[in-house]
Amino acid sequence: MLLLTVVYNRSMEYIIDGIKDIKKSFENEKNTLGISESIIEDTHYIKFFSSNDNLNEHNIKNFNLNVANMLYKVVTTEFCKKEINNFLADTYFFLQYDEIKQVKPKIQKALINEGAISGPNMVYCINRKNKIIDKIIKCIEENNEINISGFLTFRAKDLFKDLEPIVDKVVEEYMVEKEYNEFIKLLKYFVEVQDSKIDEANILIDRSGNYFLRDKDGNDLVENMIMELSDVKYDSKESQEELIISTMISSAPKKIIIHCVEHCKNKELIETISKVFVGRVQYCDNCSECEKIKSEMAILE
User: Fold this and answer.
1) pTM, full prediction
2) What is the pLDDT of residues 21-73, one digit of tens each?
3) Which of 7, 162, 188, 282 has the smallest count of CB within 10 Å of its CB?
4) CB contact set of 53 (below 8 Å; sequence gap of 6+)
5) Burial grade of 298 (CB within 10 A; 0-12, 13-18, 19 or more)
């Protein structure tokens, strides 16, 4: 049973790995997939045959999905080779050469979607990719022969437009990360140029994720800061975190001990502290204060 004929030219020999993946996946379904190749000048003709003349709907859908995945990789490869530089230059003209060099591998990874999901942006990229693959599957279902060069000629412009929002998300994430790193660098500078006002700061995190910042004698380090900023309300968890960071930046402690870090709801806060106060951060979960937290006892004033 002939399933599909795929036609490509010699310049696209990178699709051979995709053809191997299709064969491997099909055989995992306990069917045998035969492949016949013929070459006329620079054009390759790949015919996919099934040993089973009565394939069920699931097998056919699985085959079409794997062919669509192969064609998706062709589309993204061609986009990265021919379109990405122009798109970045037109849309993100403010990016420097070094920045483009850094962001392009991130874009390629997101387009192909290799690796684990790393956040909401990657989930968005997966959803966009699935929509594109659905379009490609419909094209496969409507034809018994796919000429990849023709497919790119007539479909690439539309599919490239579908890829551009993924690029936007990656660049957006890159810019946020860049701004965050610059912010960390500035905070590190403030800490390094000033003398330490206290030897030790203790951050205690209770079971509800509330923070308490104290010196080695148990004195509240935040209280003075609040008095100095009496007009500002620090009633939300985000504002508490900002106050913790501000207090430590201004006091520049020589040592920071974070107690019961597993209770922290915002891991970025811990990451920020570790990056700003390099070599000064320690973790504790077995001192007397930690035992109070673990037993759900109130932290004594």
Assistant:
1) 0.75
2) 888 877 766 677 888 888 888 888 989 888 777 777 888 888 899 899 999 99
3) 282
4) 1
5) exposed
